[in-house]
Amino acid sequence: TTKFTSALDIPVEFVQKNVKLRGKIHHITEKGLGVEHIPISIPLITWIQGKWQSKGLLLVRLAGVELAPSGVAWLQQELKPKQMIWFQLLGREDLALECLVLVNKGRFLSVCLNEEILKHGLGKTARIEGLQHDSRLYWELHKRLLRAELKALKKNKGIWKEESYSERIRGRISNNKFVQTLKQFASWLRRSI
Fold this sequence. Notes:
CC033 protein, SNase_OB-fold_sf, C3orf33-like, transmembrane helix, membrane
């Protein structure tokens, strides 16, 4: 029932047991999601605690994902302010929480944002901070994230998009020194006349 307003407020046991918490999104930056923790509510106790609990946002980062700038823009477009999310604690680094972030899509369906970012090619798989490399959970999550990244790679999405053959040829021609010299000569000729 306690409302956490800082990553340091969260007990170490919660992080070690990979507890899921609920929260409301307030803002999204390159550093992560600013999330207001919403504790389990018991009517009378919640009302009494609400009188003296401090305000503050948790910095939640997508564990195992290195976001591209387009990934931040996508998150800002997809997630609405005050939208409810679930975040599973995987690790804590200074004042940031490394988490799997789940968003409800309909009544019975939830989507893992970590995987969605990678499926759209808006980031790369990174080391999952906070989890031991030899743990079963680390390898299960890492495998899921790599599969999502592979889907984007196979479909040439996002950062994995390759130039078409004609775009590569056009680029090589325009970067050719002879062509650049001809362009300079043509512009000099136009100014002279």
